[in-house]
């Protein structure tokens, strides 16, 4: 049996191509079915355990379909309002978004890898999908189930807006599937930027771009983590109000479980709201009302919910609120540290580190990337809960993203340059033994008292170079002088470069108090390639042997 399992190859026949496309389509259908079924099981459990259900199982399943569409960012429509005007519900619990993204990612990755299964077998030939086939097949199958869920939820109490669902469901499926095929294809750098100009693609594959991307991600994690700390602290501060709202909203245990699960699904939203609060712009509490560290502006229109009871409403600016800008300050420091740990790693000499301009540009790019990511998170964390005063809730995406970029660039770049200067401050190259310091020609005692010399910092564990070891013999290789404690120290550094070698020999001579050999490294630390054999040594390289008496 012939197996064609190479990822991304052209399939040999139209029949095998259609078989692989059908397999990818089925994977997309299964991924959507798993997400929809998970929410359906949860809703049915709550419906069964409710002592006084208001509707039958069909209505409960339609609610589950609506919640599944809401997990993709689609707006729901609530018709049973007091005013009779349909009210949109667009505040998406961000924890639910992780479910469809993970399922589509997994389906696309397995469509590329095969996952040990046969994607299509036609005439004894096993085929694995190409990149485009896996992507479009999974997305098509997922969207087909989304269309069916939209039609099914239409007659329920919380139907989804057709326009919003048609926009968000394919977008979420495409994002997850793109990540899946990219992961299965070995994460090639620049492969997702084929539509971008050549200069952008070349910049995206450079190591400095990866460093900036990693630092931006660390800054986003610091901001969201700090926002979560602020939200948790506010919840503890208003524990009484949150406790009362929790028990007033639901009288039985199934209802309380539903409220607790909804609060858990909204926990990432609360973390992003806290980050926006710490950054300064704050978040909207209804049309015309905004909460910032300086106080609450306008009249908030808040629904009755435990997390909402923890919001700083009706409170003036207090010192505890003014301390919240510590969140972006910490994020800027994190961005600087993640930038400098590659730009100027430990044990790096000044000639081997990035320049001031390169370090500043990388930190600035990381700050801009952090701002862009926070803008996306702010857009996902907010949304309307009705009409009129309830039409605006959550942080404004462009204000949150712009402020995050300003904070991280303004503070991150100076912090990165300062940390770089601190790491590259004047220091004696470490790793030279006391014997090497005493071997200079200027007198052993003077060289030994010239200054403290750190020893055994660069040398291999268990190797020569510890205090008291005999280092007079030739070394096996120049690798004895390489830093091995931190792997990042050797990244991008050519330790065998002639310029770097001369700098180290000159530093050794200075630490030794001078040498009588005219600036040449002592024999006790000369690598083998620099040490001439005794049989071929020139006459002037050492002390002349006494002439034999005639």
From TrEMBL:
> Transmembrane stretches, by residue range?
20-48, 85-105, 126-154, 160-182, 211-237, 257-276, 283-302, 322-340, 360-381, 401-422
Residue runs in coiled coils: none
The yes or no answer to whether the keyword Membrane is present is: yes
> Which parts of the sequence are annotated with region: Disordered?
430-449, 508-550
Keywords of this protein's UniProt record, alphabetized? Answer: Membrane, Transmembrane, Transmembrane helix
Q: Does the keyword Mitochondrion apply?
A: no
Low complexity bias located where? 527-550
Q: Name one Pfam family in it.
A: DUF6350
What's this protein's name? DUF6350 family protein
Provide the species name: Streptomyces flavidovirens
């Amino acid at each position: 049996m012939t197996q064609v399992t190479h990822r991304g190859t052209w399939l040999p026949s139209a029949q095998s191509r259609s078989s692989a496309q059908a397999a990818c389509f089925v994977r997309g259908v299964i991924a959507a079915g798993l997400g929809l079924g998970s929410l359906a099981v949860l809703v049915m459990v709550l419906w069964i355990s409710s002592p006084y259900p208001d509707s039958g199982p069909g209505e409960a399943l339609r609610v589950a379909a609506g919640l599944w569409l809401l997990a993709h960012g689609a707006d729901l429509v609530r018709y049973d309002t007091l005013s009779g005007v349909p009210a949109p519900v667009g505040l998406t619990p961000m924890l639910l978004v992780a479910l469809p993204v993970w399922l589509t990612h997994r389906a696309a990755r397995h469509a590329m890898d095969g996952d040990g299964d046969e994607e299509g077998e036609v005439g004894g030939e096993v085929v694995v999908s190409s990149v485009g086939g896996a992507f479009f097949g999974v997305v098509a199958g997922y969207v087909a189930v989304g269309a069916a869920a939209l039609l099914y939820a239409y007659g329920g109490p919380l139907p989804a807006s057709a326009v919003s669902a048609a926009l968000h469901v394919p977008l979420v499926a495409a994002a997850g599937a793109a990540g899946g095929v990219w992961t299965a294809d070995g994460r090639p750098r620049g492969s997702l930027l084929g539509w971008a100009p050549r200069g952008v693609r070349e910049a995206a594959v450079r190591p400095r771009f990866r460093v900036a991307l990693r630092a931006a991600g660390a800054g986003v994690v610091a901001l969201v983590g700090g926002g979560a700390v602020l939200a948790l602290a506010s919840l503890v501060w208003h524990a009484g109000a949150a406790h009362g709202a929790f028990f007033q909203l639901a009288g039985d245990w199934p209802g309380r479980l539903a409220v607790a699960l909804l609060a858990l699904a909204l926990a990432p939203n609360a973390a992003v709201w806290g980050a926006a609060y710490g950054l300064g712009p704050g978040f909207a509490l209804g049309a015309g009302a905004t909460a910032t560290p300086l106080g609450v502006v306008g009249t908030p229109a808040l629904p009755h919910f435990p997390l909402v009871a923890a919001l700083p409403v009706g409170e003036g600016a207090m010192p505890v609120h003014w301390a919240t800008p510590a969140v972006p300050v910490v994020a800027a420091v994190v961005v600087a540290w993640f930038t400098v740990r590659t730009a100027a790693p430990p044990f790096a000499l000044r000639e081997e580190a990035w320049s001031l301009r390169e370090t500043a540009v990388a930190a600035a790019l990381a700050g801009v990337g952090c701002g862009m990511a926070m803008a996306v998170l702010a857009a996902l964390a907010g949304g309307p809960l009705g009409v009129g005063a309830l039409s605006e809730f959550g942080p404004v995406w462009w204000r949150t993203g712009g402020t995050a970029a300003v904070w991280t660039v303004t503070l991150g770049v100076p912090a990165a340059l300062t940390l770089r200067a601190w790491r590259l401050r004047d220091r004696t190259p470490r790793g030279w033994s006391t014997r090497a310091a005493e071997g200079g020609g200027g007198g052993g005692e003077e060289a030994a008292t010239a200054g403290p010399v750190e020893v055994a910092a660069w040398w291999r564990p268990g190797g020569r170079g510890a205090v008291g070891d005999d280092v007079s013999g030739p070394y096996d290789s120049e690798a004895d002088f390489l830093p091995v404690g931190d792997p990042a120290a050797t990244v991008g550094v050519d330790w065998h470069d002639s310029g770097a070698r001369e700098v180290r020999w000159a530093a050794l001579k200075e630490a030794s108090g001078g040498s009588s050999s005219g600036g040449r490294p002592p024999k006790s630390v000369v690598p083998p390639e620099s040490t001439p054999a005794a049989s071929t040594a020139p006459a002037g390289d050492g002390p002349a042997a006494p002439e034999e008496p005639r």
